[in-house]
Amino acid sequence: MQPNVAAAKAALAHIEQDENPATIRAKSRDFFWYSPVLKEAMDHLEADFVVNPKSEAEVIEVLRVCYAHDVPVTTRGAGTGNYGQAMPMRGGCVMHLRHMAAVKEVHPGRVICEPGILLKDLDAYCKEHSGQEIRMFSSTWATATIGGFIAGGSGGVGSVHWGSLRDLGNIIRLRVVTMEAEPRVLEFRGEELARVSHAYGTNGIITELEMPLAPAYDWVEIFVAMKDFMAATRFTDALANQDGILLKLASVYEAPAPYDYFTRVKPHIEADDTLIGLMVAPHSMDGFLTFLGRHPDARMIYRSDANDWPRTPGPVFEYGWNHTTLRALKVDPSITYLQVRYGFPEHLALIEKMRDALSPEVLQHLEAIRMEGKIAFAGLSLVKFTTKERLDEIVRMHEEAGALIFNPHRYTLEEGGRQSADQRQLDFKREADPKGLLNPGKMVSWDTPDFDYSEMYRYPAMTPKPEAAE
Amino acid sequence: MQPNVAAAKAALAHIEQDENPATIRAKSRDFFWYSPVLKEAMDHLEADFVVNPKSEAEVIEVLRVCYAHDVPVTTRGAGTGNYGQAMPMRGGCVMHLRHMAAVKEVHPGRVICEPGILLKDLDAYCKEHSGQEIRMFSSTWATATIGGFIAGGSGGVGSVHWGSLRDLGNIIRLRVVTMEAEPRVLEFRGEELARVSHAYGTNGIITELEMPLAPAYDWVEIFVAMKDFMAATRFTDALANQDGILLKLASVYEAPAPYDYFTRVKPHIEADDTLIGLMVAPHSMDGFLTFLGRHPDARMIYRSDANDWPRTPGPVFEYGWNHTTLRALKVDPSITYLQVRYGFPEHLALIEKMRDALSPEVLQHLEAIRMEGKIAFAGLSLVKFTTKERLDEIVRMHEEAGALIFNPHRYTLEEGGRQSADQRQLDFKREADPKGLLNPGKMVSWDTPDFDYSEMYRYPAMTPKPEAAE
Fold it and tell me: Does domain B1-216+420-470 have CATH number 1.10.3210.10?
């Protein structure tokens, strides 16, 4: 059925909409441009209109009206995702949830809130309320929303202690609205959470979240420099295995990335320095300094609570996770990245192998995280991009070595994940989005069930590029 | 030199002393009688006098006066240790620190306190102050002191998350008084902590502690029953490896120990039920119940926040750690125990092997703990005691299989530990206790440097038994 965009837009006139074409274009885009592959494929995509509901009732109305008029709805928070999660593949309606930013309840160990609140504001609220903060956040903490993080993220700062969002206990409850003739409101807990978390809003819209909290501390942010990359990686692995030293972040950046890309750190290091970024609980600093003292090859060059740097580097976590790539891109636009899983117990050997094979074309950027109880590493490797073919070859080299890739140069859930259908998400999409209007084109198993993943999926119904349309 | 007990006692007349012979005897004894071997060796030991200082100044005075008169000083908190840590081997002065129980400061993540405060009272203070509690405690939480725990313990409830007391970061600072002509007051942090923590008060007396805190939650206490022991052990191991589910305790008790020894649990289980005891953070209960739902062979028979048990079992942690042995002893006085280290990654195979070889003579009691970042198990195996020779043989069987034993049938630091001198503790004793008067007989390397550990150490200067003295 053809969408009747004009009718839907008119029927939603009482809900806040953006009319300025520049605003509409800006609010149609996320951080897909980290990937030259996605940039080429998605740069032309744009919503027909943008709505900004203020309540669950308004979300329900948007979904009801768009369902009636067969208009696709792509939902987003701040649009800081890098997989093109929030790009409207067939135009239609882009729904922003930034106005739904209320904190409803805070209790010891948990918070109930709306999806559109910034991670930063949620943390500020919980800290002020009772000295608490969320267990983990993306490096886009200052600009991203909790709903976008849950729908489009997988982990981040805090994962070195708490594991990933998909781990049991890291999301308590999600309240979700379906896209049907009469949208339903459902509450998901336990096994049901996997239906809609990290589903890019393809099968329901999150209108309320209940998340676990951890104590908020005045984390001491630290940079340590070491000359040997593998020694730095082993240092970080061993530190993260110290059960009595509470960390929130432990990142490793292979030389010369810190010197070349971290402009405020550059005056304090040399080109051959591998850098380690850390967040350490203040009451763990004695333990950390003791650990550090056992490693004479490690130099602490910065600590946020005591330093003589004329210019602050800003939050150390804004050098980690996907901010690393962002900083590199600002200096060298040809840089892109990969997301790699270096699982325990082969993680150190695998990292060394990939580095031996690919450095400096691929520079290692590692984040220590817990996976099934064991410290291992997520790699967000910096890749000097040449061609799509070479990028695919680099991906293949990782996979052949046993390093799982979550390919950030693909816009579907499956290709950015484990290259196979998630039956729970697909089954729930059948229930919750019978017309397939929610964030279309992002779930291969919905559109093309027999896709074999041998090459990049191309959504057939995607809005064609202007030149192709001529 | 002969001790001049009477002179010392008289010189300390202005400090509180116990005069009642029954009190003196009671205050001379710890829980050494868990071990039939120690019971035979130590039952006759008794202090000549007992002092109860109220301040660090009084501690200094006790140590100065006893030094001058060559009187041994054995220091204790509540005397709940099981290794005979606090038994006065040569009589003399027993110094109780229960009057030194002040909390001095509480900050986010840490507390500064005196050694004599009960673990229970310290937790109550910190929870009331700011919703915090200590990271770990012994199962004798209700009766033991923080100073005794640090000087004589190694870990406990909370170690499933935070590891052991010896791990960097689990003690921040200790203030220590030496026993010299003029006692010195020293502050130890970092590497220096290892000199005096878990040293049984053999080389200095702790007068102030700075300890890390964790958030205090209303932990949900749980019993789960399973028919298969190894399935229960794997369940507990997998649960403790769930990074998003916050636990404080995860214990496994092989059948029929729960049925035979846990009288309040008995009506709810059968003789062939292996029992799992858990403490789960309330905001992790959804995650836990999801995990539980994946194990249809696991029955949750009790949760403290919702149950229909006519009679409460009391705190679930009072079934774990060394309370297990205590409960077994009350029913069967022939029971004793071992402390075993089942290290990662062989822990499950090793447990199965020892059980196959020794059950039911030795019943498995396991506590999940983190060791160097990995979940593994401490075994506090219940042993049906027959002879000392058989007990030694059981110890040998464990060691030959690769399961390290911390032998609780020995009263020296070395034999209860890793069977070798701790050079840091010995070196500091040379500085801090030049006359060797602090808790004499507990450090083999001080008294008998060339001891070969082939058999039980017998302190030559120990007060002889009355019959032997006749």
Answer: no
Average pLDDT, chain B: 96
Domain A220-406 CATH (choose: 3.40.1580.10, 3.40.1620.10, 1.20.1250.20, 3.40.462.10): 3.40.462.10
pLDDT in tens, B399-432: 999 999 999 999 999 999 988 899 999 999 999 9
Are A243 and B288 within 8 A, CB to CB? no
Helix axes A229-240, A347-358, angle to 10 degrees: 160
Cβ–Cβ below 8 Å for A373 and B241: yes
Structure tokens at B140: 């004798």
**Residue B222 and residue A267: Cα distance in Å, rounded?**
55
Q: Are residues A163 and B244, on separate chains, in Cβ contact within 8 Å?
A: yes
Q: With an 8 Å Cβ cutoff, is B344 touching chain A?
A: no
Task: State residue A470's pLDDT score.
Answer: 44
- Residue (of B341, B360, B361) closest to B350 by Cα position: B341
Domain boundaries, chain A: 1-216+420-470, 220-406
> Is A284 near chain B, with CB under 8 Å?
yes
Query: Which tokens in the block code for residue A158?
Result: 């805090």
Helix-then-strand count for chain A, H and E: 18, 21
pLDDT in tens, B80-110: 998 999 999 999 999 999 999 999 999 999 9
Residue of B nearest to A376 (CA): B373
Percent of chain B with pLDDT over 70: 99
Predicted ipTM of the assembly? 0.96
Q: Would you call A172 and B286 a contact, using CB atoms and an 8 Å cutoff?
A: yes
pLDDT recorded at residue B470: 44
Between CA B75 and CA B93 the distance in angstroms is 8
The pLDDT of residue A132 is above 50: yes
Q: What is the pTM of this model?
A: 0.96
> In angstroms, rounded to a whole number, what is the distance separating the alpha carbons of residues A314 and A405?
30
Per-residue pLDDT at B235: 98
